[in-house]
Amino acid sequence: MRRTIVYISLMSLAFQGSDVAAATTYKATVLHPLDGYISSFAQAGAAIAQAGYGAVAPGGNSHALLWHGTPASVVDLHVAPWNETRVLGATDNTQVGYGFGTLQDSSRHALLWRGSAASVIDLHSGAFGDSQANDVWGEYQVGYGTSAFGNEHAVMWRGTADAWVDLHPAGFVYSFGFGVSENSQVGWGLKSGADGHALLWHGTAASAIDLNPPGFTFSRANATWGNSQVGDGYGEATGGGNLFHALLWSGTAASVIDLHPTGYGRSIALGVYDRFQVGWADNDALLWNGSAESAVNLHAFLADVPIDFERSVAFDIGPDGTIVGFARDSESRSYAVMWRPIPEPTSGALLSSLLVVLMSACRTRNYSRDRSMSRRGINRGKIQCDSHS
Asked: Domains in the chain, please, with CATH?
């Protein structure tokens, strides 16, 4: 009988047999269209599609754009009679934004698309001077419209110009809707004699919740998902002045979490999905997982792109973890950018692979191979197995 004992070091693994979420890195892709565009911005992203706008040469007028993961996949959603169009919010099948300026007037109209220029729906109501849609969830769109008195009111639409709700809360002079998710809408409003306050609604003006936290002079909510809201604010709590800090709420002002990471001057959170938040700090696009300490610098993943970028911003994160935004080069040219997560093997997967190798090694009858493994330093850990002959 021959007894073969093989050991392996587990010091590099961060667990002892339990399931651990995969560590993640990101692959950056420049979505900027190959021809005819001066600059581009990816404002919204989902599992399949990304959307935003690009400035067309010559003249630089913006065209609403839709991508499916590559520069070559770009679809120009621009439609006459508008001089400019932009997408600001999107799902895989629906895009919202605005059209600006015609031969007749210079008004702005909230627009809804379903994947093509021909599908455009004008959400603008005669009750408004201007309107703009900023986000979409299912059959609902949110944004704002300018009232007859010139004050902006947060608005929620349901797919047509006639189906809309004025979300403007009592006691506010202006209000804006920025994000929507399920039965929640977020934005901000301005009270007379005060700075802006982040707001949360649940479908009606009367449901408005003031999210402005203690110690903040100004705050705004930019996006929502489930019971999470993200945005930014400044005040005594951030050191005074207009030192914006990225913020995360869970439905109340008291629930606020300051996401501002150490080492940065200003930060803003612009998108949220599940437990993840995205935005920027100073010149870097960032990803958070619920705390300031969790910040991941997405700008670092642009190093593999053959363009020397000096600044980046993350606008949105989709259900599959895809993040979209833009990056700016040294000549101030902006490029739509997408970051896709690349999961590394989980610690559990690594352990399973190692066990297979070990069991194979344990079946060998060649002691010299065991000695060779020993010389390579594999015999320093806790796992052992027996082989009998």
From this structure: 1-23+347-389 (no CATH), 24-346 (2.130.10.150)
